[in-house]
Design goal:
By secondary structure, this protein is mainly alpha-helical. Helix content is 73%, strand content 4%. The protein has helices spanning 9-27, 29-32, 38-43, 49-64, 68-91, 105-121, 124-128, 130-152, 155-169, 172-195, 221-238, 240-250; strands spanning 96-97, 198-199, 203-204, 208-212.
Length: 251
């Protein structure tokens, strides 16, 4: 039985409203990726300056409207995203950007994505009904990855999706955040590859023939988990006393 059907109408309305505000707005950024599309580069300018400016403005707007913890985590996400993108894209050739670089808007986008999902998952009404939301997200994720596997032979994405479920199997406290991240990353990847902003090879890392991949693979959010874990680790290191007090309170 779908748990979401038993959620009070008032709560469900608030959850949808918060989802639209925190995550729905970020989905609109998918259309901003048009400014780095193949069409835009061929008919207007090949420069990534317009989209970099738009992303910077969006990042600053969100940053100054966020809580201190989210602000701090967003800064960490920018630096970790910058290093991670160079490692996976330029170093391992896991995917390739249109100009074979790492655009400025990408690490800024990672930080904005992290912040939006954090705000959504920490909303009181969402936390109250988290099991219902998680179930809906899990069903959608399973369907998406299965469709990609059956119709696009996306073995790589399907394997990564299985890893997502396995990692979260005994980590119920993290499911809401990472299921939300999976869906938002999927939307971003579908839009970015459709516009030609970046491209994934036909196999995992362009070298593992037994792992055929779609462009994009469905479960790529698995690697975004590294971003979240790194941000969380840096935050706890810098705020050891506050984090220790919080753990003591929970116990």
């Amino acid at each position: 039985m779908l748990r979401i059907l038993s959620v009070e109408k008032k709560d469900l309305s608030r959850i949808i409203s918060i989802f639209n505000r925190e995550i729905g707005r970020f989905v609109l950024f998918v259309f901003v990726l048009f400014f780095d599309s193949i069409y835009f580069s061929e008919h207007v300018t090949p420069s990534q300056i317009p989209i970099n400016i738009l992303m910077l403005l969006g990042f600053l707007k969100m940053y100054f409207r966020s809580t201190p913890r989210v602000k701090e985590s967003m800064i960490y996400a920018v630096f970790i995203g910058f290093l991670g993108e160079h490692f996976f894209s330029r170093g391992l050739d896991m995917y390739t950007y249109r100009l074979e670089n790492v655009p400025l808007y990408v690490p800024l986008g990672h930080a904005a994505l992290y912040g939006r999902i954090f705000m959504f998952s920490k909303a009181s009404v969402v936390k109250k009904n988290h099991k219902s939301v998680e179930q809906v997200f899990a069903i959608f994720i399973a369907l998406l990855s299965t469709v990609y596997l059956v119709f696009f032979k996306d073995v790589f994405g399907f394997v990564m999706t299985l890893c997502v479920f396995l990692l979260l199997w005994k980590r119920p406290k993290h499911r809401l955040f990472f299921f939300s991240m999976y869906l938002l990353v999927a939307a971003l990847e579908i839009g970015g590859t459709a516009f030609g902003c970046w491209k994934w090879p036909d196999t995992a890392f362009g070298m593992f023939s037994f792992l055929p991949s779609n462009n994009p693979p469905s479960g790529i959010s698995l690697f975004y988990f590294l971003l979240d874990i790194s941000c969380f680790y840096l935050y706890t290191l810098r705020n050891k006393r506050a984090w220790t007090r919080l753990k003591n309170i929970r116990q």
